[in-house]
Design brief:
The chain has 353 residues and is an alpha/beta fold. It has ten helices and 15 strands. The chain has two domains: 174 residues, Alpha-Beta Complex (Quinone Oxidoreductase, Chain A, domain 1); 139 residues, Rossmann fold. This is Enoyl reductase (ER) domain-containing protein.
Length: 353
């Protein structure tokens, strides 16, 4: 007997009301296509995970234009329940996720199109995507864990590239990308330093990652936190910084990166000011640092990450901070906006809660 396919879906769209306290998303009902395009798949979503980017866009802080009243979020995991007549790779029953940049298949494309910005995101109970823009997720993961991979996971994976076994990395913050990077870095044999403004969060991390002991730095208590990083590395500096602050922290990140090291710029959480970058060019040249922008990753990157995680059956349950029901999307977005989480916040969809 064929499964009866849904004709409508529940979906949250942004209100684009950026006033404090106002609802940032609104639940609506939308029609699904009566017939799938030949190379498309219909995905029943089980879990959506939030990134700071989602809260930032919902509050009007994105530095790039976004589609008015678009659908938020770009991290989701679901099950394929139907395929178009011309699909050749993805099958019914596959555990999958769409890629974050739907134009970035190999890493060499010139175009880009980001979910939840240039096009609608994934905060819905059903999704339709072309199979070329969908990847299979590791089968050993729960739905909650699998939903962390498409954006946060691939961003962390891309940010850690080219750092060999035994190297050192400074990871800024305790958000989703940072905690995913922490997991990958420890599994890769890297010495990890984590920075945060919260002693409570840092203590929790030291307790959780005690063997070997995790090095931490509180950048609020120690404004010259780059000096702490240099002390930890015997004055040499780290091989890699995963930079999330932007112009407000970049100069200090340069000062604690070893000569010839790498800074992976993945975020812009701090206030952006050109005055903070007066020393940028001299430091960049003097320290011979490779400063690279990380914009999630390609479909190939996602496939590679999933293969690596499957090979060692890496679990991610320890970086899930909290779970909200789908209907509480507004509360979840505000929770992330307030920076209350250590790790990832997820939303249970289609009864996954």
């Amino acid at each position: 007997m064929h499964q009866k396919l849904p004709s409508t879906r529940r979906v949250f769209r942004r209100t684009d009301n950026h006033n404090p306290g106002a609802a940032k998303v609104q639940l609506v009902i939308e029609d699904l296509p009566a017939t799938l395009p030949p190379t498309s798949v219909l995905i029943k979503v089980h879990t959506v995970s939030l990134n700071y980017r989602d809260a930032n866009i919902a509050n009007g802080g994105n530095p790039w234009p976004v589609t008015p009243h678009g659908i938020p979020c770009n991290d989701a995991a679901g099950e394929v329940i139907a395929t178009g007549s011309g699909t050749i790779d993805i099958r019914v029953g596959d555990k999958v996720a769409p890629i974050t940049d739907t134009e970035n298949l190999t890493g060499r494309e010139n175009a880009r199109s980001w979910l939840a910005a240039d096009e609608d995101g994934v905060l819905a109970d059903y999704l339709v995507f072309d199979e070329r823009k969908v990847c299979r997720l590791p089968s050993h993961l729960s739905w909650d864990e699998a939903s962390l991979i498409p954006c946060a996971g691939v961003t962390a994976w891309s940010a850690l590239k080219d750092i060999g076994f035994g190297g050192s990395v400074l990871i800024q913050g305790t958000g989703g990308v940072s905690m995913f990077a922490l997991k990958l870095a420890r599994a890769s044999g890297l010495k990890v330093i984590v920075s945060s403004s919260s002693d409570k969060k840092l203590e929790e991390l030291r307790s959780q990652y005690s063997e070997p002991l995790l090095s931490t730095v509180n950048y609020a208590t120690f404004p010259d936190w780059h000096e702490n990083v240099l002390d930890i590395t015997q004055g040499v500096g780290v091989d890699l910084v995963i930079e999330v602050g932007g112009s407000q922290t970049l100069i200090k990140s340069l000062k604690c990166t070893r000569r010839g090291g790498i800074i992976s710029q993945v975020g812009y959480l701090g206030k952006e000011s050109a005055k903070d970058l007066d020393e940028l060019v001299p430091l960049l040249i003097d320290r011979r640092v490779n400063l690279r922008g990380i914009n999630a990753g390609s479909k190939q990157d996602l496939d590679d990450l999933c293969s690596a995680m499957s090979a060692v059956e890496m679990r991610l349950n320890d970086i899930v901070d909290s779970k909200f029901p789908f209907e509480k999307a507004n509360e979840a977005i505000e929770y992330v906006w307030q920076g209350k989480q250590v790790g990832k916040v997820v939303l249970g969809v289609n009864g996954s809660c």
